[in-house]
């Protein structure tokens, strides 16, 4: 009988921060103990208490791509929180990616299309539109 040892690497917040920066992440990165960490990781669901290694605030599509690459490189979970609803996927031991700063709204009335950033709240996206805002226009 042969026994095979299984080695699981322990990934630290420093590793993930280095991976984010190395992949070209330009947004702010928050770790446990930082002033904004606890505020940013909160979900609207009070029983949901995710504990990511880092909270990364994306400013662009390239930041989102960098976060995906870093999560894959270190084999850690990646959860995305876009606006006010919060995430429903745990990011324990991984990266919580915030897209709330990505709030562009580009409208092409001639083609009747709009391109809306992932952090845009519905009230901003629907300005001047007859579209319904649902029950939470600030989400």
Automatic annotation (TrEMBL):
InterPro entries: FAD-bd_PCMH, FAD-bd_PCMH-like_sf, FAD-bd_PCMH_sub2, FAD-linked_Oxidoreductase, Oxid_FAD_bind_N, Oxy_OxRdtase_FAD_BS. Pfam families: FAD_binding_4. Belongs to the oxygen-dependent FAD-linked oxidoreductase family. The keyword S-adenosyl-L-methionine does not apply. Residues 48-139 form the FAD-binding PCMH-type domain. Keywords: FAD, Flavoprotein, Oxidoreductase. PROSITE patterns: FAD_PCMH (PS51387), OX2_COVAL_FAD (PS00862). Its cofactor is FAD. This is FAD-binding PCMH-type domain-containing protein. PANTHER family: BINDING OXIDOREDUCTASE, PUTATIVE (AFU_ORTHOLOGUE AFUA_1G17690)-RELATED (PTHR42973), FAD-BINDING PCMH-TYPE DOMAIN-CONTAINING PROTEIN (PTHR42973:SF39). It comes from Kribbella sancticallisti.
């Amino acid at each position: 009988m042969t026994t095979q040892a299984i080695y699981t690497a322990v990934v630290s917040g420093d590793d993930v921060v280095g991976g984010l920066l190395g992949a070209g992440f330009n947004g702010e990165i928050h770790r446990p103990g930082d002033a904004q960490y606890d505020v940013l990781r909160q979900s609207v669901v009070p029983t949901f208490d995710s504990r990511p290694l880092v909270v990364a605030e994306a400013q662009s599509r390239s930041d989102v791509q960098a976060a995906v690459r870093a999560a894959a490189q270190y084999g850690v979970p990646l959860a995305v929180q876009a606006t006010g609803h919060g995430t429903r996927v745990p990011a324990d031991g991984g990266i919580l990616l915030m897209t709330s700063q990505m709030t562009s709204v580009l409208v092409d009335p001639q083609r009747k299309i709009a391109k809306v950033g992932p952090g845009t709240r519905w009230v901003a996206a629907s300005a001047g539109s007859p579209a319904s805002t649902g029950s939470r226009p600030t989400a």
